[in-house]
Amino acid sequence: MKDNRDKRNFKRYRKEAELILKANTGAYKGRIIDYSDGICAVVKDASSIVSGTTVNIKSHELGIEFLGEVVWAKKVIPDLQVGIRRVDNLRGSLKDFRLPDILKGLQKTTSTGTLEIHNDSIQKKIYIKDGDLIFASSNQAKDSLAKALVTAGKITVDQYKKTVEISEQTGKNQSTTLAELGYLSPQEFIRALKNQVEMIILSSFNVTDAKFEFQEGPLDADESIPLRINATNILYHGYKKVNDLLYLKEECPPPDIELSLARDPEELIQNLSMSDTDRRILSYLDGKHTIKEILSLTQTSDIETFKTIHALLNIGAIELTEGSVPSAEGVEIDNELMEKIEEMNNNYKSLGYYGILGINEGASEEEIREAFYRIAKEFHPDRFFSLPSDDIKEKINTIFSYATEAYETLSDEANRREYDTSLSVKSEKPASKDEMAKARFNQGRTLLMIRNYTDAATLFAQAVYFDSSTASYHYYHGLALSKLNRFKDAAKAINEAVKLNPQKADYVAELGHVFLMLGFKARAQHSFKRALELSASNERALEGILKTENNKKSFFGSSENLLLRISKKYGLKRKK
């Protein structure tokens, strides 16, 4: 089974390309199978390459060159297949990476730093803090604040010309000159600045012939002004700019799948600037219509419908309808289904990837995808979560895991080709529940270290599923959830860890920090004091006590402080 550590934080692009891998044992030729913030590759004559090896990767075809670390390696006779994560700055060409995918990946990893986009004539910067878009700058005249204000009718053409003239004479940027001339109040200036930043980012989605690099690290407080940018709306319109119909069809679920709004989507949808056509498409995403039916109902082109669905899927506004993965409530295991579960559990390895999906070896990509969705509807573990029998749940999980492995392998052209040439696989002794829990826990810790919090949370949840008696599984599940800002769920998970091991100061202190994020100051203080009783030098508890007693401000301070900073930076006069 492919190691779960190969799950990466950024969109994975499947494309084969030649590469050169250099390690301290020599240089090796190979080919890339897919790439993102890392790569999956097959390397020739590289038996000395093992997990943990530091390597240099270079592919002229994709313009990829980076320093990486081998996360996993497995022998694929006569070659070696490896998963490599990047350890230096994320960079590349916008011909090979889509900008919305980059921004979504940085949001997912809660990164802080500056994304630079440049070619011979363009120089744009997008400033990001904890995954949030907070500012942007550009060297393009059309992106200037003064030009935007003229277009919006906020200043006259003569005022604009005067601004440009004084800026050229003094060497000051147009924003500073505009403020000094007193054409706008501080409040008007903030609104205009925010609109300009959004315009710069949106216009960046049109740039493809350019390089990019993300410089990770703390932001200089004087270099950028933090603004409240609607990142969801930005990403939505970024994904809407994808015009490749074949790509959109591949990225969206099969046509017979029903889609519906995600849970609690109201605030998400309300903050989107959508056209009437977009909203008409949205109205059919009610869990009752398949994609095929929506295409016939929307009275617009297929590509426009797919663009809207693709964008909504990527911002998390819609999901597969609940019926695609039936609810656990009321599920009964009749004799016929029980016999099928027993048969598939006993014979899944002899069935092989094609047999488990019920397809022949000549099946198309669409047939593979549709077969997997059929298996998911029948054997998804969530459907049987409430069953009292752990034995049945374990068998169902085994079937679904193997079906997922089959789908991932057969959906990738290179992996499918390798599988077809090596169909004889030695059967392995089924792992115990404790072993399955420990394996998922260890994989989750690795993903947590590289800040892949979503997949880490999933793996920790699976560890808890197989073994709910181990406190550390609950604790790390809570840590991952807190990184995803799911503080209520995090509190439940860490509280369970504290129940199982009430003498562990780290668990108690971390629970205090989660309470603090939920606004429960008294509970937080109690947890920090309890942790210090258990361990007087516990750093997380001491840090929490300081936060509750000193009421420290955030990095950017209050909105009033933000206004003061902007006024000071641009020399604005505050209106009384």
From TrEMBL:
SMART domains: DnaJ (SM00271), TPR (SM00028). The keyword Repeat applies. It holds the Pfam family DnaJ. Gene3D superfamilies: DnaJ domain, Tetratricopeptide repeat domain. The keyword Oxidoreductase does not apply. Keywords: Repeat, TPR repeat. Residues 352-423 form the J domain. PROSITE patterns: DNAJ_1, DNAJ_2, TPR. This is J domain-containing protein. It comes from hydrothermal vent metagenome.
